[in-house]
Model the fold of this input.
Amino acid sequence: MTTVTVFGATGRTGRPLIDRLLEDGYDVRALVRSTSPDLPVHDRLHVLTGDATNPEDLEQALVGSTAVFSCLGTDQQQVLSTAIPHLVTKMKEAGIERIVFIGTAGILDASEEPGKYRFQSSESRRRSTIAAEDHLKAYLTLKDADVDFTVICPTQLTED
Done:
């Protein structure tokens, strides 16, 4: 049985991902800040309570996993730019090479202004760029790390 670890499991992206992974037969380890009644009770779902910015908690969450899904959001506290460097280190220590990272569309290249990211360009309607800057730091960490990664940057997430 293949085991994967999910960070951000209780959010709008992570929660449906948990369902899909379980449907597809994966064993899932999920690190959450606090136990959530929204997560299903399932014999292949192992929920750990901890902090994604804490290296020891990351290490525990990765035990036995072959891949990682990061659906972490940012809460104006630089969660991503703090967690991802620790996560890359712990993944390497555990021999895990694969991560799928959900990022904001703001970190895509601007189509109208070459050399800028969307959040830096006139394409963006953001009043604040704090979250996009945090996503960008996390993306650049993955880009510079020796890990196999995919960054998914949806332009909009819906509940449908």
Notes: The mean pLDDT is 91. The CA atoms of residues 85 and 141 lie 6 Å apart.
